[in-house]
Specification:
106 residues; mainly beta; 4-stranded antiparallel beta sheet; 3-stranded antiparallel beta sheet; 0% helix; elongated
Length: 106
């Protein structure tokens, strides 16, 4: 990136070019199967502790919520039977960060 400074007398000065590094998350979310029918396996690597998972439909309505799910040591099984077929979003809320994953229910 580079900054441009404009003085009151309209003189401009450009700063030296600098590089910015944005540290990304080392957390990997695995969801299977996708599309899913009755059960969904979710596994989180690179995270510790429990997580909250919210299932949201395409209208932004909360359909189901799972609290304090432990998906770090082994895949967690979520029961999704009874939901209408379609596209949903899984909001995964971890202590360190949060992420959103698409899910198709058939």
């Amino acid at each position: 990136y580079r900054l441009r400074q404009t003085d009151i007398d309209s003189r401009e000065k450009l700063s030296e070019i600098r590089q910015a590094k944005i540290k990304g998350s080392d957390i990997v979310v695995s969801i299977s199967p996708n599309p899913a029918k009755d059960q969904l396996k979710i596994f989180l690597s690179g995270s510790s502790g429990t997580t909250d998972i919210n299932l949201v439909n395409t209208q932004g309505q909360l359909v189901r919520s799972w609290k304090k799910v432990n998906a770090t040591s082994a895949p967690a099984l979520l029961d999704i039977s009874g939901f209408a077929p379609g596209m949903y979003m899984l909001h995964i809320l971890m202590p360190q960060t949060s992420t959103v994953e698409k899910l198709i229910i058939k």
